[in-house]
From TrEMBL:
Residues 1-194 are annotated as: CPSase. Small subunit of the glutamine-dependent carbamoyl phosphate synthetase (CPSase). CPSase catalyzes the formation of carbamoyl phosphate from the ammonia moiety of glutamine, carbonate, and phosphate donated by ATP, constituting the first step of 2 biosynthetic pathways, one leading to arginine and/or urea and the other to pyrimidine nucleotides. The small subunit (glutamine amidotransferase) binds and cleaves glutamine to supply the large subunit with the substrate ammonia. The gene is carA. This is Carbamoyl phosphate synthase small chain. Keywords: Amino-acid biosynthesis, Arginine biosynthesis, ATP-binding, Glutamine amidotransferase, Ligase, Nucleotide-binding, Pyrimidine biosynthesis.
Length: 388
């Protein structure tokens, strides 16, 4: 057993047991309250360069399978857990979590008091942190490296995790149990009725699968794709994906979205980072949260249908509701802290949702939001057809 050390920028330290590879990792530290879905979480590009703490005490109990990745690799900078289960038991499991971390060169630490650590982050806010497993655990050196880590390193993360080339995605879900949670008015098939351009800022696989389930053939484009290139594709809809980093830094992407809003009436749907970028393009402001929302048990109120949805969340930034222009309508709010969770534009077929309605991991309460995107696309196509 190799001893590991976790150090925060305020000098707090936690000694535990090394999991994954031996070495060192530095990044922002956040906590996730999800009980299930650790595989989806650590492969979610929205967590790029972040050290994730799981508040649920037992992690690794169902191993790793071939189906639940949300990207091609592990995205987190490091992993912090209370207890790594000895036995992985699931009929789909092909690998243990420990071996998976080693396979992807990820440093982690277990056997620490994650409750104490979570309370510390809640009290002091998101901090920089360092995990080290070197034979000589030099706390002062770890603190120095932690404080030297620049948050500016995260300013271009959406470009880093984005695809480098345009490609077509036509794979839907294969889980009938998931499909039955969708709106029953939608026919699930592999027939494609709508051509949708997807901006990849760090998109999760399951978002694309569900869009395909709703009849969308996806053309996925890099984060730096210019507006005219997309307009020339003549899409039926534009999707702005989730992703990592500070949305205020993505000035060029916001400029591209502004062009769509000014020059076209193409329906636009933004999730998470995409939702925030959309709000910026329409004149709202973004603020950083103290410790963010990360987990699969966040209650959100849908103001239009007066219903509470339990949602998956993963964000450190939020749209400042007080800066929303009059062309916006607030559609969803968090019941944890009252922060903005959903918006729609009153004069354009444009809307955004802060949570992750594709529910990977998490409950399927909000997956019907995809259906609203389809309805906007149908109306857009009908209008264009009538004009012709």
């Amino acid at each position: 057993m190799r001893i590991a050390l976790l150090v925060l920028e305020d000098g707090s330290r936690f000694y535990g047991q090394s999991i994954g590879v031996h070495g060192e990792s530095v990044g922002e530290i956040v906590f996730s309250t999800s009980i299930t879905g650790y595989q989806e979480i650590i492969t979610d590009p929205s967590y790029a360069r972040q050290i994730v703490v799981f508040t649920y005490p037992h992690i690794g109990n169902v191993g790793i399978n071939k189906f639940d990745n949300e990207s091609a690799r592990i995205q987190v900078a490091g992993l912090v857990i209370r207890n790594l289960t000895i036995i992985s038991s699931n009929f789909r499991s092909v690998l243990s979590l420990s071996d998976y971390l080693i396979q992807h060169n990820i440093v982690g630490i277990s056997n620490i008091d994650t409750r104490q650590l979570t309370r510390l982050i809640r009290k002091k806010g998101i901090q920089r942190a360092c995990i080290t497993t070197f034979d000589r655990l030099d706390m002062q050196l770890a603190v120095r490296k932690t404080c030297e880590y620049s948050i500016d390193c995260q300013s271009n993360l959406a470009y880093e995790v984005s695809t480098s080339h345009k490609y077509i995605w036509n794979q839907g879900t294969n889980y009938s149990s998931m499909q039955c949670k969708h709106d029953t008015s939608v026919i699930f098939s592999r027939k494609f009725f709508y051509n949708v351009v997807v901006y990849d800022f760090g998109i999760k696989y399951n978002i694309m699968r569900i869009l395909v389930d709703y009849g969308c053939l996806l053309t996925v484009v890099p984060a730096n794709t210019q507006a005219q290139e997309v307009i020339d594709m003549d899409p039926d809809g534009i999707f702005l994906s989730n992703g990592p980093g500070n949305p205020n830094e993505y000035i060029e992407i916001v400029s591209v979205i502004k062009i769509f809003l000014l020059k076209t009436n193409i329906p636009i749907f933004g999730i998470c980072l995409g939702h925030q970028l959309l709000a910026l393009a329409l004149g709202a402001k973004i603020i950083k949260m103290k410790f963010g929302h990360h987990g699969s048990n966040h209650p959100v109120k849908d103001l239009e249908i007066n219903k509470v949805l339990i949602t998956t969340q993963n964000h450190n930034f939020v749209v400042d509701m007080m800066t929303l222009p009059n062309i916006f309508q607030v559609t969803h709010i968090s019941l944890f802290d009252g922060t903005l969770q959903g918006i729609k534009c009153l004069n354009k077929p444009v809307f955004g949702f802060q949570g992750h309605p594709e529910a990977s991991p998490g409950p399927h309460d909000s997956v019907f939001i995809f259906n609203y995107f389809i309805e906007l696309i149908k109306n857009y196509l009908s209008y264009n057809s009538a004009r012709e």
